[in-house]
Design brief:
Keywords: Cell projection, Repeat, WD repeat. It is found in: Cell projection, Cilium. With 941 residues, this protein is mainly beta. Among the domains are: 724-826, Recoverin, domain 1, CATH 1.10.238.10; 834-928, EF-hand (Recoverin, domain 1, Orthogonal Bundle). The chain contains twelve helices and 62 strands. Strands 1-58-57-56 form a four-stranded antiparallel beta sheet. A four-stranded antiparallel beta sheet has the order 2-3-4-5, with no helix packed on it. Strand 4 (44-49) and strand 5 (54-59) form a beta hairpin. The protein is globular and about 110 Å long.
């Protein structure tokens, strides 16, 4: 699907948050004609227009942006990322276009970068060791830009800061925690000198270094430390001719009570930011001239100033500057500036705040507010354009996402939020914490209403409310499900109604991947289901659950054989065509029968009936863009103009890492029915959809971001003018003209002949269809060995689509198009590989060291566990694989996974363990496939 179509389906509208962990992340673009700032969040660069409160979002990175720098003209900004296939991008801040994208091959990307004052060169430090320093002439006309000069950093101390000399672009300074290195490329290659720093010579201890700069108009440089000191460097004064890199320490001055977290210059001033949150201005002798100590935003990460024409003589600038009396009695003036802090804030500070006595002016204006720890959860208000955001910072923000304003803030001291949810009536907001505590807040004021402390401190991973807001349930990290009910205290009608803890049940032996409330069939009473990685779907008895007896289980079903369920969606919305819906009860429509949608780690979407049969209705191929789906949500239909019906119905999904996307309804497995895009550079911890279906919100965990996406299901166009079956053929190995497709056609023809009898002299009649009884064998001939349970699922699916209720599916004729759809939707996305066979042997008792397994034990498992093979089936399989004369007793007493695959099954490429690589094509023809089986954990719940 074309990139422009993908961007139309999900278009990024707003980015909440700030990459606060990297130095120099904010750059002031204000120049008298515009009031704007540039900053980065996750893998996206943002140009924020302060006056108009709008964002321009610049996308081009796949990895987290870890470094950025801005030219003195404020026109060019460079962003760099770290990770696989890392790049640097030079942006034009006026046109918002990328001017140059430079691949940074090897070394894990960029750790730090800077741009020369003339904007011609970019200097970088690589992330991985051996660390390299490189100089890039980015304005070169070359198609592929390589560094002009590069050299290994021989110091064992990793360098993490790099700065150009603003007066001479040939000079660069870098520093790590214990070494400062001065570099020069004036002689056509990198030359350097690292001055010694000893406590003995300085007569005082020197803390670890934080940042280094050159001081404009001088030969001096400065370095900050974690102790709050600033070291002043100057050129060596010796009888010999000294080089530009030969520097020595002049003095050490204590500037901050905490560490120096930012170091820069403006005009003739040295500017420092401190761990205590102060910004101070020093003269070139490091004497404090002015200070801004009322910001209250946390440790200062960066300071960036408005640009003015007379910047070289800033003290003489009168317009748009603040003035006051400096410490030495002289007049102090500087441009307005912005400060970013470790608390993920960006504050606009007027220079007049230095001389003002107004506390509001002294604190500055908050421009951006994020969270300083991973964001773990988001929840959309059920009726209003509001979004709750929370995470490990302990802060819960309630945003108005149309105006992008923070309405309310709740702070939980020493608590880490992991899950949140609004109740459908918008009265309460439930909050779950990593230590198992659950709090109920007023949804409108965020005031605490109730708090529940569990007996065991297990992280609350999910919270779900029933449709009538009478219940809410929680899942925790230990596979337990808890239930809370809105009822009278102590079940006494005379007492007030409040939330009451009913009980907790350890329903799963592995992580809970789905927790959903639904309703009883054709009724309105709530039901509760949970799904776990233990492959079990558990339904709870809400009617008989009470405080005395706790949470009771009604029943449990195993919903998959090998695949691990990763997500659950329970909806009354119709996900399939009418002909694929389960047959309803008499007098009811198919649309009234709600369905369960399971996603699995095998990239399949399975729809099951929600009644007690749990019958699998349909299996379709899910999106394969970025790993298994970990959450699937139904997008509420958006009504068209003049009251038109909702169109563009779709599901939205996320994967554990990076990708979100849409799937057009009805579900049919068509690869063109889905799309995916890189939403975050790391994991996706949570997502939600606005109440009107217009927006998707995604949380990026460690990237500290929440992104707002506009949803347009209508742009997800499935029809490209071709027959739909061609879309399925496109994803078969080699496509329509490939050898495998020709093999499928040949086998389909042979299956028609076989259905008419192989030993006949009658004239053959190729009708283009095969009876359904031939489908399982045909699939086995093509390398997919469905289990009996999978065949049963296919049988019900075909019966529902083509047969009559209670009819005989064996007589249904399957055409080639239907077979291709079935094959693509049901076959495994990845073939069996070495690790799969070894894991199977280990699961049934192979020696963990040698991998050996007793032959009799192996075949005992095959005949007793899972879909057991009868004795005659084992004998038939051995004859098919090894010849008519081979008996079970003739096999070796001890068998390994490798020997089983190569010698018994005939897999020739067993050692090829490439991802997705199939182990073998040991299948012969259609008639040589005995029903495949496997050991399956069918132990009772």
């Amino acid at each position: 699907m074309a990139d422009d179509v993908v961007q139309q389906c999900l278009s990024l509208e707003w980015a909440f948050g700030l990459n606060k962990d990297f130095k120099g992340v904010v750059h002031n673009l204000s120049d008298g004609t515009r009031k704007a700032i540039f900053y980065v969040i996750a893998h996206t660069a943002v140009i924020y227009d302060i006056n108009n409160h709008t964002q321009r979002l610049l996308q081009g990175h796949r990895n987290p942006i870890v470094a950025s720098c801005c030219s003195s003209s404020r026109r060019f900004v460079v962003t760099a990322d770290a990770g696989e296939d890392s790049v640097m991008i030079v942006w034009d801040t006026f046109s918002y276009l990328p001017l140059k994208t430079i691949p940074v091959h090897g070394h894990g990307g960029v750790l730090a970068c800077d741009i020369s004052s003339d904007g011609m060169y970019v200097a970088t430090l690589s992330k991985e060791t051996p660390q390299r320093i490189s100089l890039w002439a980015w304005t070169s006309d070359a198609v592929e830009i390589e560094p002009e000069f590069t050299a290994d950093v021989t110091a064992t101390d990793e360098q993490n800061v790099i700065r150009f000399n603003p007066d001479d672009a040939r000079l660069v300074v870098t520093n790590g925690t214990r070494r400062v290195i001065f570099w020069s490329w004036a002689e056509g290659s990198w030359k350097f000198y690292s001055p010694p720093v000893t406590a003995k010579e300085l007569k005082q201890a020197v803390g670890n270094f934080t940042q280094s700069i050159f001081i404009p108009g001088t030969s001096m440089a400065a370095t900050g430390t974690v102790d709050g000191d600033v070291l002043l460097w100057d050129r060596l004064k010796t009888d010999k001719i000294s080089k530009d890199t030969d520097m020595m320490i002049l003095k050490v001055v204590r500037v901050h009570n905490g560490g120096v977290t930012y170091l820069g210059t403006v005009g003739n001033y040295v500017v420092t930011g401190g761990l205590e949150g102060f910004v101070r201005f020093l003269d070139q002798k490091l004497r404090i001239v002015a200070w801004f100590e009322e910001l209250n935003g946390g440790p200062v990460i960066s300071v960036s100033f408005d640009r003015h024409i007379n910047e070289d003589n800033i003290a003489a600038t009168a317009s748009s500057t603040g003035a006051g009396t400096a410490a030495d009695g002289a007049e102090f003036s500087c441009p307005d500036f912005v400060v970013s802090t470790a608390n993920a804030m960006i504050i606009d500070v007027p220079a007049r705040a230095f001389s003002s006595t107004d506390p509001e002016i002294q604190r500055g204006r908050l421009l951006v507010q994020g969270q300083d720890q991973p964001i773990m959860c988001v929840a959309a208000h059920p009726t209003l354009p509001r979004l709750a955001i929370a995470g490990y910072s302990g802060n819960l923000h309630l945003w108005e996402y149309t105006t992008r304003k923070v309405l309310l803030l709740s702070i939980f001291r020493n608590l880490l939020v992991h899950s949140i949810a609004f109740d459908p009536k918008a009265m309460y907001l439930a909050v779950g914490f990593t230590n198992g505590i659950v709090k109920i807040l007023d949804a409108n004021s965020l005031e605490e209403v109730q708090s529940f402390r569990p007996k065991t401190p297990d992280c609350v991973t999910m919270i779900r409310f029933s449709h009538d807001s009478h219940f809410f349930a929680t899942a925790d990290a230990e596979g337990c499900v808890g239930l809370y009910k809105f009822t009278h205290r102590a079940q006494d009608p005379r007492k007030p109604i409040e939330w009451v803890y009913v009980g907790r049940h350890r329903a799963h032996r592995a992580a809970v991947t789905g927790l959903q409330f639904g309703v009883v069939p054709y009724g309105d009473a709530p039901r509760l289901l949970s799904l776990g990685e233990d492959k079990r779907l558990v339904e709870y008895n809400l009617v008989d659950s009470d405080i005395e007896s706790g949470l009771r289980v009604r029943c449990a079903h195993k919903v998959t054989q090998g695949a691990i369920p990763t997500s659950l969606l329970w909806t009354q919305d119709q996900l399939l065509d009418e002909k694929n819906m389960p047959r309803p009860r008499e007098g009811k429509s198919a649309a009234q029968a709600d369905t369960l949608l399971f996603a699995s780690n095998e990239y399949k979407l399975k729809l099951h009936a929600s009644d007690m049969t749990r019958q699998c209705i349909k299996t379709v191929l899910g999106p394969t863009f970025g790993g298994p789906l970990n959450q699937v949500l139904l997008v509420p239909g958006q009504a068209g103009g003049n009251g038109a019906a909702a169109t563009g119905r779709c599901l939205v999904y996320s994967t554990n890492e990076k990708v979100v996307g849409l799937i057009r309804l009805p579900l049919d497995g068509n690869p063109r029915s889905g799309m995916g895009l890189l939403a975050h550079p790391l994991e996706i911890t949570s997502m939600c959809v606005s109440h009107d279906g217009r927006y998707l919100f995604t949380a990026g965990g460690r990237d500290h971001s929440v992104l707002q996406w506009a949803i347009d299901g209508e742009s997800l166009v499935v029809d490209d003018g071709r027959n739909v079956v061609e879309h399925f053929i496109d994803i078969i190995e080699g496509g329509r003209e490939g050898s495998f497709m020709k093999e499928i056609i040949d086998y389909f023809y042979y299956a028609q002949i076989r259905a008419q009898g192989e030993e006949t002299t009658a004239k053959r009649k190729i009708v283009g269809t095969i009876p359904f009884t031939q489908v399982p064998n045909l699939m086995r001939a093509l390398g997919y060995y469905p289990s009996n349970k999978e065949v049963a699922h296919m049988t019900y699916e075909i019966d529902t689509q083509f047969g009559q209720p209670g009819g005989n599916v064996d007589g249904i004729a399957i055409n080639f198009e239907t077979f291709v759809r079935l094959y693509v939707n049901h076959r495994p996305v990845f073939g069996i590989n070495k690790s799969n066979i070894e894991a199977a042997f280990a699961a049934i008792g192979a020696d963990p060291v040698t991998g050996l397994m007793d032959r009799d034990v192996l075949f005992h498992f095959l005949q007793q566990r899972g879909e057991a093979l009868e004795g005659y089936e084992v004998e038939s399989a051995l004859k098919s694989l090894l010849g008519d004369d081979v008996q079970l007793e003739m096999l070796e007493d001890k068998i390994t996974a490798k020997a089983f695959a190569e010698n018994l099954l005939g897999f020739e490429d067993y050692e090829d363990d490439a991802a997705g690589g199939a182990v073998g094509g040991a299948a012969g023809g259609v008639d040589d496939a005995a029903g495949a089986t496997g050991v399956d954990d069918e132990a009772p719940f």
